[in-house]
Design brief:
The complex is a heterodimer of chains A (274) and B (263). Chain A has eight helices and eleven strands. In chain A, helix 3 crosses helix 4, helix 3 packs across helix 5 and helix 7 packs antiparallel against helix 8. In chain A, 31% of the residues lie in helices and 21% in strands. Chain A has a single domain, classed as 4-Layer Sandwich (Purple Acid Phosphatase, chain A, domain 2), CATH 3.60.21. By secondary structure, chain B is an alpha/beta fold. Chain B folds into two domains: 116 residues, no CATH class; 114 residues, 2-Layer Sandwich (Hypothetical Protein Yjia, Chain: A,domain 2). Helices cover 25% and strands 23% of the residues of chain B. In chain B, the strands form two sheets. Chain B has a five-stranded parallel sheet with strand order 3-2-4-1-5, with helices on both faces. In chain B, strands 6-10-7-8-9 form a five-stranded antiparallel sheet, with no helix packed on it. In chain B, strand 2, helix 2 and strand 3 form a beta-alpha-beta unit. In chain B, helix 4 runs antiparallel to helix 5. The chains are: A alpha/beta (274), B alpha/beta (263). Chains A and B meet through helix 4 and helix 8 of A and helix 4 and helix 5 of B.
Chain lengths: 274, 263
């Protein structure tokens, strides 16, 4: 691996075994730069341990929706949950996590920035608009391009969906018609955009891609190449810890099957208004 | 086409073999009057009967409004072109095909209702019936829940059903239900381990937007190591409150013509 490679991890969700396995995988490749896209906690059984590990490794991290809710309280509007069932389970997980976390670790989550930027690379949890917005791989190309372009980025790294993907947005153009007061007619301008990319890092602690393996991405800053990595970890250990913690057992069941358990809202592009 | 004379058949087979679907299609194709009865089967060693709780009858009567309920003795004589189909969950084939070989407990139920089958058809044995979903069970538990008055949050129902049939609450081989939604519709939910995917079939009758629905609503599950408490806990999180139901129904009432604002 070249020295210009860096790893991007997201959605750790208090799953210590998965986080440790991914960090070992990154270390084995000699990658020294890691960026985290948030959601360190939520659903999983080891919120303090995972936050502590991220702090110890001094991994630059932006704030995820769960990180925000734990420190601000449940003030997301109901759109964050796709169903009553998901909402009630989510609230149970929220209250359990909030009770477990130390003040010091909560303060750390509160200190996290919404975005991280390195030159033309932008790192967010959901989208540049909100930690709660899902940038799905099949969302309208225009909307996807708008998210990247208005954020002033060439490549936008995000998480939140738990499904890793790389989407290239090429051939984009914006046509604008301008009418000026006092002058007749309108002028038309067309702006051709260079290729933009959205890279979703998937999820370390709550994989939702039909497999139980943790996922993250490696980005080569020189070549721009993106590699999606899948890492095996001790799923059974985390599942047992979920049950032992008294969290809903269905969380363990879904984790053991690679099913999603933080289902997305019907309108994935909806931005929460508080 | 069945013969133009009064006909009474006993249709039996193991859970999920397609008895109700076959009966529905047969009754739909029959031009004359028709009747239906679901008999209470008998449990065997390690094989527990599922409590149907009227799911099949409700579904069939919704699809065929003229269907007569045979659970009370019928006035005689029956019309010549009438067909009566009697459904029975039966794990193992009786020793003989002849009506005389019917289990005495079943015979007793039929005698009470003055019903005498002309034929006994068994899924997995008789070629007239489809056989692809006829499974042999050696152990089966049953769990059921009355959901009378209950209304589901639609997306929660979808999640719950996915979890149920994919093993979150034990090894489910068979699940069927009648579920009410806030917009007045109800669905016959049907799943069998041998089939791909679930059926979600809408009932024809839509309840008016005036409070909780009156019709039957039940869930029946058969399988192994069923976690009834887990199922119940999840269902509690899926059913909507009076306030939420009212939020759904108020706009629907406003959209109705004034003349239909009746209870």
């Amino acid at each position: 691996m070249t020295p210009m490679a860096h790893a991007v991890i997201s959605c750790l969700h208090a799953n210590l075994a998965a986080v440790e396995a991914v960090l070992e995988d990154i270390d084995r490749q000699g990658i020294e730069t890691i960026t985290c896209l948030g959601d360190l906690v939520g659903y999983g059984p080891q919120p303090n341990e995972v936050v502590q590990l991220v702090r110890e490794r001094a991994i630059p991290t932006c704030q995820g929706c769960w990180d925000e809710d734990i420190i601000d309280g449940l003030n997301a509007c109901e759109c964050s949950y796709p169903s009553q069932l998901a909402e009630r389970r989510g609230h149970r997980a929220h209250h359990w996590t909030a009770e477990q976390m130390t003040d010091e670790n909560k303060a750390f989550l509160a200190s996290l920035p919404m975005t991280l930027r390195r030159d033309r690379l932008l790192f967010v949890h959901g989208s540049p608009n909100s930690q709660h917005e899902y940038l799905l791989p099949d969302m309208s190309a225009f909307a996807a391009l708008e998210r990247v372009e208005t954020a002033g980025a060439d490549t936008l790294f995000c998480g939140h969906t738990h499904q890793p993907y790389v989407r290239e947005l090429s051939g984009g153009s914006i046509r604008v018609t301008v009418e000026q007061a006092g002058s007749e007619g309108a002028t038309e301008q067309e702006l051709t955009l260079p290729m933009r990319r959205i890279v979703n890092a998937g999820s370390v602690g709550e994989p939702r891609h039909g497999d139980t393996k943790a996922t993250y991405v490696i980005h080569n800053d020189t070549s721009g190449e993106v590699t999606i990595r899948e890492v095996e970890y001790d799923v059974a250990k985390t599942c047992q810890a979920i049950v032992d913690a008294g969290l809903p057992e269905v969380f363990a069941w879904r984790l053991s099957h690679g099913f999603e358990y933080a289902e997305r809202a019907d309108d994935a592009s909806h931005v929460c208004e508080r | 086409m069945l013969e133009t004379m009064s006909t009474t058949w006993l249709i039996s087979g193991p859970p999920g073999c397609g008895k109700t679907s076959w009966i529905l299609n047969t009754l739909r194709d029959h031009p004359g009057p028709c009747g239906y009865l679901r008999l209470k089967g008998t449990s065997q060693e390690g094989l527990e009967q599922g409590c149907d709780a009227g799911i099949d009858r409700t579904w069939l009567q919704d699809q065929i409004p003229s269907l007569e309920d045979l659970s009370t003795p019928q006035p005689s004589p029956a019309a010549a072109d009438r067909i009566n189909l009697i459904e029975l969950q039966q794990f193992q084939a009786p020793p003989e095909e002849a009506p005389e070989a019917i289990d005495p407990a079943i015979r007793s139920q039929l005698d009470t209702l003055q019903l005498r089958p002309d034929r006994c058809l068994l899924f997995g044995r008789d070629p007239e019936l489809p056989g692809q979903d006829t499974l042999a069970f050696n152990r089966l538990e049953a769990w059921s829940l009355s959901l009378h008055n209950s209304v589901w949050d639609p997306n929660s129902l979808s999640s719950f059903w996915f979890e149920l049939v994919n093993g979150a609450y034990g090894d489910v081989y068979r699940a069927k239900a009648l579920m009410n939604l806030p917009d007045g519709r109800a669905f016959f939910c049907n799943w069998m381990v041998s089939q791909q995917g679930s059926q979600f079939l809408p009932l024809e009758r839509v309840e008016p937007p005036h409070g909780r629905p009156k019709r039957s609503s039940e869930l029946v599950v058969q399988g192994k190591a069923l976690n009834g408490i887990g199922i119940q806990t999840t269902i509690d999180d899926c059913l909507i409150s009076d306030d939420v139901l009212e939020m759904h129904q108020a706009p629907m009432r406003d959209q109705q013509p004034e003349s239909t604002h009746t209870r």
